[in-house]
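re: that chain from earlier
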Amino acid sequence: MWATNGCAAYSGINISTTTVPEQCDLDLVAKFISNGLNVKTTAIVPCSRSFLKILDVPYPVTKDDITNALHAASEPPIRLTAQLHIMHNSHHSDTATVWFNVWDSQSRANIKKLNGLFVTIGSAQCIIRPAWGHPTNSCKAEAIYCPHCSGPHSEKNHQEYTGCCKGNPKANLPILPTIVDVECPHIPICSNCHGKHAANDHKCKYWYHRFDADWFSRQRAEK
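^ sequence. v structure.
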């Protein structure tokens, strides 16, 4: 980092630098000016706020879980301007969207660093297509789909969020909910080929070709 110029501004001294200074750089500047002017000085970077959101966060989740995951994914850890906000995506979904603001520089260096960053909250194993064996950050699916009903939730939470297993006691012929820990008796719908089987059924042609990139390319070209 180089200092390009300095001038009196904002009731202090404004120093322009070639890159965003780290804390060690700020400490060095403060020490240099304090010794030169014989006064106690602090050095800070002018800050603004940047807005970001995280998609498909496993739900339920706590603010501490997300804050810790953000700190683990960013070096140095980011500084939030306020408490983050968690919104459950829907009653049929086991994911949430998280909004938060961070302190940023005028060049928006932090948001550039964080934009598109993969944050692990919970398991790193893919919950979108769990039977295919890849990690979450390698999955090309745009959202989470249950392999049994294609709903917006993971397979392990199928009975809790899907309508078919909740029953309907107000129907003319009341429908009882599926018994807890009993396998869903309803006809599955594959989220890949839309056939009447689960997406992780080994008989599905998509599962059979799960490691064949050329086959998937041909499938996309035909659609």
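Residues 52 and 115 are 8 Å apart (CA to CA).
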